[in-house]
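Predict structure. Chain length: 281.
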Amino acid sequence: MRSRLNAGSMIPRMVAQKLIRKTAARARREPRRRWARLWRKAGRRPPTLKLGPGVITSGEQLYQMGRLATLEHWFALLPPQHADAALLCLRSRVALDRGSYQEAQTLADTADLCAQDGDRPLVLLLQSRLARAQGRYEQAISLARHVLDCSTDPAQRAMAMRALGICYDQIGQHPEAIKQFKAALAIERQRGDLYAIARLHHNLGICYKLIGRFQTAEKYYSHAESYWAILGNKGWRALTLNSKGVVQHLAGQYQAAHATLTAALTLAHEAGPGARRDRGA
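Prediction complete.
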């Protein structure tokens, strides 16, 4: 069996990928010493987790693809004493996506304690999201504005604008929300961050739906869905298609809505449990 899975074998790629996913699922329940053996069985080298920027970069890529289970495997391999603010923020975001708010808060508090000057905007953005998740919108807005005051980094400023947009959307100030989302979108288009662009299109779709502009909302959802397809994020793609199907139904496009919602349901099943995200993610 092992010889069939070595590099250069004739096993179909999809079969190999399926086995890798099954192997990763088993790894969660296996002791650390068996991790390398399981990955070798799948014909792949086990991931090497060298503590440093590479881990954060790789982790962000997995997060953008919606590979939360894979990320959790990575986190389990890190030394318990490792305290890097950027990595702790990433772990907190994954916990939030899983609905583990207490764990997310604990990780955020730890990140705050060990943060260096350059990490401060990331921690503030995370704290803003945690406050928003608990309905404390004034505090969330204040924290996001603090990022705009202290950071010149385009990515961080765009994330702060998006955070403001979500807050304003949640409290019913939709014109201000649209303004913030479009400002963030202009930055992200220059940066070429497809994940951020997709999220902002989804957010704009929500806003236009809420003010009754269903055709415009559908357009933004369609753009978002295209980006999720490129990124391979089935969880977000399913959510966006579901939202698109709703606005199509509201606009009286019942056949189109049925097709869109059916596609969303299929993708949601493929993405698996825990892949769904709320609109404030």
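Summary: The first helix runs from residue 2 to 5.
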